[in-house]
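Table S2 (continued). Query chain:
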Amino acid sequence: MARILIVDDQESDRYLLRAVLESRGHHVDEAGDGAEALARAKADPPDLVISDVLMPGLDGFGLCHAWHGEEGLRDIPFAFYTATYVAMDDARFAREAGADLVLRKPQDPATLARTVEVLLATPRTPAAAPLPEAEFALRHQTAVNAKLLEKIALLEDIQRGVIELVSRMIETRDPYTAGHERRVGALAEAIGQQMGLSPERCEGLRFAGQVHDVGKVALPAEILVKPGRLTHFEYDLVKSHAKVGHALLEHIRFPWPLADVVRHHHERLDGSGYPDGLSGDAIGLETRIVAVADVVESMSSHRPYRPAAGLESALAEIEEGAGLLYDTAVVKACVRLFRERGFSLPD
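Corresponding output:
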């Protein structure tokens, strides 16, 4: 059986690959980055190296280039095993840098094992000379930049997916207010646009609206759907959703102040809100926007404990409280949306 060197900065990925290869009788060694792999291979050359692409320090492309510049290593098969999208240009560059194979994670274990064994059994042609340093450096940076953009796009998709999941979870928990989160998010985003905020901040406002009541997942369902007036105890329990929601989100690193908005969307400029009695500028702009959007949507919609007050009543409420309870600029932007821009809450 072969001696195989795995190179990956993720311990969990190395573990999974090791399990597949050792189950087929191969001896496996590991390295966490390209520099460590190169040092291990020089000291004790393997029969095959399988490397990730994006790693700190010497990455996979850099390792492959350096590998095929070493007299004692250049004839050893080199395979890439990467979770990032392998475009045709990347695969061509990988081969020109000296790779024998480019695989995308994850692979079915049986298929991966067979692919490795075919690679080990296939006679290799003599390795070509490595790319000139200047050409390699330019193409390397281009390829790495492309893969970083792919990874950033993937992470952004995951963030959006998490937020959408949380929003749907809230609606499932409280079906009588289904759509509230989504409508608050849509209105908050529109207010931000009306105020001239950047597209990134407006996107964050939509997401903040979609999760602002996430803490209600901890409330008893019978309180959420209770048709009559809440007792003092029940109302205090409902108010706890702001702190609970903050606790659920505060350790997740979003590029938007979601946890802060969730905690403080019931604060008011005069300090009469909850849970922390913040006032004035201590309340962030995104929070002030979501607070207005929340009031307008809530008053405009039916609730189990009261009929809908209607949009005009909701707008009158925020106009009356402008400068005292609600941010004046936010109120003006919200009113302008409905009365001048023809905005309407989504169904």
